Amino acid sequence: MTVGREEIGQRSETVRRANLSAIVRELHARGPQTRSALVNRTGLTRSAIRGLIGELAAAGLVSEASPQRLGTPGRPSPLVSLDPDSASVLAIEISVDSLAVAIVGLGGVVIELTRVDRPRGDASVNEVVGVVAKLTRDARSRRRSSRRLIGVGAAIVGVVRRTDGMVSIAPNLGWRNVPLGARLSDALGLSLPVSIANDADLGALAEHRRGAAVGVDDLVFISGEVGVGGGLLVDGKPLDGIAGYAGELGHMSINPNGAECRCGSVGCWETEIGEDVLLRLAGHPDDLGLRGVDEVLRAASENDPVALAAIDHVGHWLGLGIASLINLLNPRLVVLGGRFARLHPYVGPVVEAELDRRALAAPRDLVRVVPSTLGVDAPLLGAAELAFEPLLADPALWLGRRDLMERASA
Amino acid sequence: MTVGREEIGQRSETVRRANLSAIVRELHARGPQTRSALVNRTGLTRSAIRGLIGELAAAGLVSEASPQRLGTPGRPSPLVSLDPDSASVLAIEISVDSLAVAIVGLGGVVIELTRVDRPRGDASVNEVVGVVAKLTRDARSRRRSSRRLIGVGAAIVGVVRRTDGMVSIAPNLGWRNVPLGARLSDALGLSLPVSIANDADLGALAEHRRGAAVGVDDLVFISGEVGVGGGLLVDGKPLDGIAGYAGELGHMSINPNGAECRCGSVGCWETEIGEDVLLRLAGHPDDLGLRGVDEVLRAASENDPVALAAIDHVGHWLGLGIASLINLLNPRLVVLGGRFARLHPYVGPVVEAELDRRALAAPRDLVRVVPSTLGVDAPLLGAAELAFEPLLADPALWLGRRDLMERASA
User: Fold this and answer.
1) What residues in A contact B161, CB-CB < 8 Å?
2) Integer Cα distance of A125 and A14 in angstroms
């Protein structure tokens, strides 16, 4: 088979763009690095790295600085960093208890973050979108600089069709078939792509890139908002299902003789480990919210038997469901997010005992259960990562700087 | 970035081998095709296809024949076929009730297939491996020809570590930590690679390639042997988990107040939809086996209320578990294998009703539940596909024909 000149040209251009992507991804995920480290990480030659870094530097995306001498002989390898001001994204979270907006710079630098409480229960789409737009205007006016926003990512506590940001159902907001992508796009008026995904999926993404699951490619993330959601990562890629609906862990059938679930079914996982269950069993009104959870944890720390029994109930059922997930998915890591991260010191041993009893020995021996390290902001940080994705995938095309663009379309 | 000559040479060799793979995969999966169809399927140019087909034909792997004229003007496009005699594999299945051996030719042509009953219960590894070796010798002696065996694939009703064919547990055989890969390799004495996988995973692979799920890349396959296993396909790739243990659907916790499971847990899905449950509820001894299932189906066809109620129980719990899987994985298709395929005419409506009640509307609207079309042989045919995989992935290297090998290593 012969390879024509034109074909080689196209192929080397494709390779060049893939290599730019590899470098920007590395720097974005792991922070400043020497060229030598980039050679090791990417497998590219030193001369290829030099050329690509040169291009990125010319476009203002990266800078190089000599690190302090460490007493080793020879010229120190310069440290390559992304400039967080060269491209930033708007991250949005629509949660049960709060709305949040952040501006995040390339490299994952949080430049601005505002979170405001919202009352639980059904929400007007107009109102939510209005608040988000106002928070965004405020954040941008505080940070009026040369920062270039390149995209918008939003996390929502609901079931989302990724392709167009249609929220098919968000029970905690009382939403059904809300075209959130279009609504946000209109309200923000930024002429930028708006990507929307489920909050737990984005929590998983953030924990994978910057939290408890760095370096772990097979992951179950269990979000503990009011309800229970989840994000699954398989071989480093999100398991979205055919339309982005996968990962609704809270709606595994786990106790067919259990309570009715908001989703219309009976005995979903959520009906045994949801926040309302914890509060009710601990003797609080089941709509007391985060204050109530704080109260239960405080009481548990003082060995209050009612609080401990309530936490124990949640731990038992948590372990039961995790055992199922281990048998189904054979992951390396289970990350307990949100409320469950805070419960982890109390429920850890109960969960482990349930896994010993209920998970098959082979996959059970290979898995660890750990608390989230990003806590409540995991979904918001994941939304930022979602918005960065097009840039990371193809820095040359996306940035639209003339010098890069010309080469990309050459 | 400049691209050196050597680099181009390597890259075009890589591309050539990937293209050979694409063509052989196409012909293997879909049967004989015209060059025009291959152009459409692979996206390769007509001249590239011509060159690659030429190479494969020179190596004896494919042949071309003019199809019968269909009254259309012009020269008919010749039909490209794989020669099933050019490479074949040995497929093995170790099941609860039977042992099977097949010789399958390239393109999935079953050349020879023998299945023998085995008594249920604990099995001696020596005995099983001995029977398989004898069946293999017999099959090969009946087919003494120029067929070249290129690999061995085995399906087993157990949990398998794919890397080395270690069966960590096969409860229905009473096996724990059996190095089946090594044992089969010794007993067969064929100096060929032996790949082993879980029977349900291989059932899923076979249904995907040649059965009810052709063209469907997101799939839950539920095997209905004595126990309940499963194979998951995500984006066309098996979801194996980090060590090949994923897909143990039968051990989802589904009824915590239910019966003890052989795995040591309580209320696994298997304890509600396993064969023994169906038989017991239908008034038969629960170890009556396939004969018993036949009997239940016969009675159901005559509207026997006890048989219908037993089937209904299984259908109800089947639907409940499938609803969980839909909420977790958002698949396009659920394929009912083995016993469940035979029950499908009776349980279909119950299952659908449970899905309406328990699965979230968004993913539920996108999924279909269908019976397997390959029936009992799905895992065996999947084992053959497993053994073909190295050849399909890199025909040039694997075949070892001198003409191809020389180019591959040039």
Assistant:
1) 362
2) 42
Q: How far apart are CA A15 and CA B135, in angstroms?
A: 51
CATH of the domain at B254: 3.30.420.40
- The residues, any chain, with a CB within 8 Å of residue B176's CB and separated by 6 or more, are B168, B169, B170
Mutual angle of helices A5-30 and A46-58, in 10-degree steps: 80
Domain-embedded: residue A105: yes
What secondary structure does DSSP assign to A309-355, as a single string? HHHHHHHHHHHHHHHHHHHHH--SEEEE-HHHHHHHHHHHHHHHHHH
Residue B253 falls inside a structural domain: yes
Same domain for B257 and B335? yes
Average pLDDT over residues A112-118: 93
Which amino acid, one-letter code, is at A113? Answer: L
Q: Per the domain annotation, does B399 fall within a domain?
A: no
Q: Grade residue B191 by pLDDT with cuts at 50, 70 and 90.
A: confident
Q: What is the CATH number of the domain that holds B25?
A: 1.10.10.10
B373: left (phi over 0), alpha (psi -120 to 50) or beta: alpha
Q: What does pTM read for this prediction?
A: 0.85
**Contact state of B218 with A169 under an 8 Å Cβ cutoff:** no
Cβ distance A163 to A121 under 8 Å?
Answer: no
A to B CB pairs, distance under 8 Å: 162
Residue B209 lies in a domain: no
Task: Give chain B's mean pLDDT.
Answer: 89
Interface probe for A, chosen from B245, B272, B320 (most Cβ of A below 10 Å), is: B245
Residue range B258-276, pLDDT digits in tens: 999 988 999 999 999 999 9
Residues of chain A with Cβ-Cβ distance to B14 below 8 Å are: none
Q: What would the pLDDT profile of A328-384 be if each residue is shown by its tens digit?
A: 999 999 999 989 999 999 999 999 999 999 999 989 999 999 999 998 899 999 999
pLDDT at A253 over 90: yes
Give the model confidence (pLDDT) of A268-297 as tens digits. Answer: 999 999 999 999 999 999 888 888 999 999
CB atoms within 10 A of CB A158: 23
Cβ–Cβ contacts within 10 Å for residue B373, how many?
16
Q: pLDDT band for B172, please (50, 70, 90 cuts).
A: confident
> Do B16 and B53 reside in the same domain of the chain?
yes
| ipTM of the prediction | 0.84
- Residue A330 CA, distance from chain mean position: 21
Q: Tell me how many domains chain B contains.
A: 3
Chain B residues touching A332 at Cβ < 8 A: 242
Q: How far is A302 from chain B, CA to nearest CA, in Å?
A: 31
Q: Using an 8 Å CB-CB cutoff, list chain A residues near B256.
A: 254-255, 320
Residues A223 and A353 in one domain: yes
Identify whether residues A49 and A109 lie together within a single domain: no
Distance from CA of A284 to the nearest CA of B (A): 26
